[in-house]
Specification:
Helix content: over 70%
Largest sheet: none
Shape: rod-shaped
Number of strands: 0
Number of helices: 8
Order of helices and strands: HHHHHHHH
Structural class: mainly alpha
Length: 153
Amino acid sequence: MILILWVLGIVIVALLIRLLLNRAPTNGKPFLLRTAVVIIAIVAIGLALSGLWPVAISLIGGLAVYGRPVLQAFGLWQTIKRFNQTSAKSNPPSATIMDKQQARQVLDVEAGASHEDIISAHKRLMAKNHPDKGGSTYLASQINQAKDVLLKD
């Protein structure tokens, strides 16, 4: 019986919060969302302390489902977006163009190497340096770029 009353109370509180959010001005919504999150967290803690773990976990799960609006209400969503944008800008992909001399050094082939020599050198080096076999992705990309430069003609 107590579980039914708790669930009924939670449903009523949720409906009241939804009603307030619908009627609140746009500048008041973040405050109401913060208040709702705090109330839901307090109710979840109370439920957990009273032994109603499944209901408490479902409340926390509901907060997880609506995580983005909650993060937006607390101003954390913009911080996360800014962090992702700055980290993407700080590590731009390398745009260095490899010349034929560097490509020959990477593949360890002579200046007049044939098509088959370049392919076999590429296969030999990729067998050693492939990322799936514990090699470096940087080395693998350099080896692939060297092969492409030498076979382009």
